[in-house]
Amino acid sequence: MSANPTQKGTANNPLRVGLIGLGSMGRHHARVIRTTEGMDLVAVADPGGDRFGVAGPLPVLGDVHALIDAGLDAAMVAVPTAYHEEVALALAAAGVPTMVEKPIAHSIEAGRRVAQAFADNGVVGAVGYVERCNPALRALHERLDRGELGEVYQVLTRRQGPFPARISDVGVVKDLATHDVDLTAWVAGSPFISVSAQVAHRSGRENEDMVVATGRLANGIITSHVVNWLTPFKERVTIVTGEKGAFVADTLTGDLTFHANGTVAHTWDQVANFRGVSEGDVIRYAIEKREPLALEQERFRDAVLGVGSEHVTMAEGVATLAVVEAVLEAAAQNRTVEL
User: Fold this and answer.
1) Confidence band of 2 (pLDDT split at 50, 70, 90)
2) Which of 124, 130, 211, 269 has the smallest CB count inside 10 Å?
3) What is the reported pTM?
4) Secondary structure string (H, E, C) spanning the chain
5) 320: nearest Cα among 210, 138, 176
6) CA distances from 80 to 23, 69, 141, 281, 312 (A)
7) What percent of the chain has pLDDT over 70?
8) Are 157 and 238 in contact (CB under 8 A)?
9) What average pLDDT does the chain have?
10) What's the pLDDT at 273?
11) Does the pLDDT value for residue 81 go beyond 60?
12) Dihedral, CA atoms, 272, 277, 282, 285, nearest 10 degrees?
């Protein structure tokens, strides 16, 4: 980035950023924006107030229009999913580059309207799929790109834990499983072409709280996803299996481990006669670990400045939402849905 003090995105002339939504995610975005070089949090808004006390010296504005009136170079949307479309469309109309927390909107039709509005107005739009910035998944993606696993056979994800009180407007599929859909297509470099699924409602809430989904990608890779809000421990694991072994990415700890297919000859007949794979060396990689949310904001900043393109685009957000809705359709109709 240039040291020219008149250029936006520098320490002397940071991007004026507005944040709408001061809840469980918004408070973290406020903290990260304030510590990101080249960004300055100049306005915050939430009609429900500031229950976490993150506004600091800034007045808490009542809506997106008051936020826009503050004069923004960029905006972060962290309101409940039901309000993503309304807020994002107002920002697009005002020409404000915007990152919307995942999913892009509450429905595929709404998501398409949001993406189209930003495209029509020539405004940068991004979606907050922060898992792409997790150090374990970034290292996994790089190693897969280098062909270290050989042919990839399967991507399996497990995303389980207790119910988060912050969620009230969507079920576990649109809140959590959307991460797995996005990261799977991203690390595998291929879109979904079909999905099957089962959901359950076990806690008395209107929306589903458990899902088991399987899928197939355009490149032939098969996928499996177990996601719920009813497991009394937290798990965030992605396992990619291929011809040379398996990578295990733990996104809670940011660790990446490789389990190699063994090549040692066996003298035990029951093992030696098995025409499959065997256990080989195990390597846990030493990787740099940065806070994913901080890297996500830097990528968004660079996209706004036109010096980077590693953000998750709104077109990608719409594609992920299409798969997520297909998962719900597959579960409701007990059939495989083609995409």
Assistant:
1) very low
2) 269
3) 0.91
4) CCCCCCCCCCCCCCEEEEEECCCCCHHHHHHHHHHCCCEEEEEEECCCCCCCCCCCCCCEECCHHHHHHCCCCEEEECCCHHHHHHHHHHHHHCCCCEEEECCCCCCHHHHHHHHHHHHHCCCCEEEECHHHHCHHHHHHHHHHHCCCCCCEEEEEEEEEEECCCCCCCCCHHHHHHHHHHHHHHHHHCCCEEEEEEEEECCCCCCCCCEEEEEEEECCCCEEEEEEECEEEEEEEEEEEEECCEEEEEECCCCEEEEEEECCCCCCCHHHHCCCCCCEEEEEECCCCCCCHHHHHHHHHHHHHHCCCCCCCEHHHHHHHHHHHHHHHHHHHHCCCEEC
5) 176
6) 9, 22, 30, 45, 19
7) 93
8) yes
9) 93
10) 56
11) yes
12) 160
Q: Which of 170, 84, 189 is nearest to 132 (CA)?
A: 189
What is the residue type of 212?
A: V
Q: Is 234 exposed, middle or buried (0-12, 13-18, 19+ CB in 10 A)?
A: exposed
Q: How far apart are CA 170 and CA 123, in angstroms?
A: 28
The number of beta carbons lying within 10 Å of the beta carbon of residue 92 is 24
Tokens of 314: 């709104």
Which of 56, 12, 65, 108 is CA-nearest to residue 314? 108
Q: Which residues pair with 155 in a beta bridge?
A: 223, 240
103 cis-preceded (ω within 30 degrees of 0): yes
| pLDDT tens digits for range 284-310 | 999 999 999 999 999 999 999 999 999
Alpha-carbon separation of residue 35 from 21, 139, 145 (angstroms): 18, 24, 32
